[in-house]
Amino acid sequence: MSDEKKDIVAELDFAPAPEATIEFGLVPEIDFAMDAAPPVPTDAALLKVSTAARRVLKGQEVIAQLEERLKAAKETMKFLLEVDLPDSMAEIGLESFTLDTGQKVEVKPIVAGSIPKKNLEEALAWLTKNGHAGLIKTSIELSFDRDDRAKALKVLAALKEQGLEPSIDESVHAQTLGAWARELIKQGKSEKELPLDLLGLYVGRRATVK
Q: Could you tell me the pTM of the whole model?
């Protein structure tokens, strides 16, 4: 080794470190049950928890009461707008008027409702038979295994040949049904010519105050 390299080794002090010695003693016994036990809550902490729980119960009670009051208020408003006010105006031959505060009051005919589930099949058959099948929304849903994507892309024509059973869901949206019936009645169709009960429709009047 050259003198230059010896000087570098001396500077870096590559002397081996002394061997470490390990003394083995007794390992203290650990009480895992004691370490895992949760701290004992103080009376103040328990009071805080129970108070919060009681506030939750009280809040649930208040919400239930408010929801009942809201439901009752909506029923009252429905009666006022669809029965009381229209009838009062009809008694004096009014269809509209303006309050001294500026709001305009009008009564208009309404047709609203939705097909009851128990009548769905019969109602759809009636609509189809009478030329109104365009109202019916039809959805076909299929379930395939994850490995059957290629089969899914073959579409409806090959479904039964593939041994698949599609589920078909047919319905008429409530707003679509109501608008259709209103238009027929407006065109002079008698209410008796429409199976209102079958279609779940209600024909009446509703006032608006704006």
A: 0.54
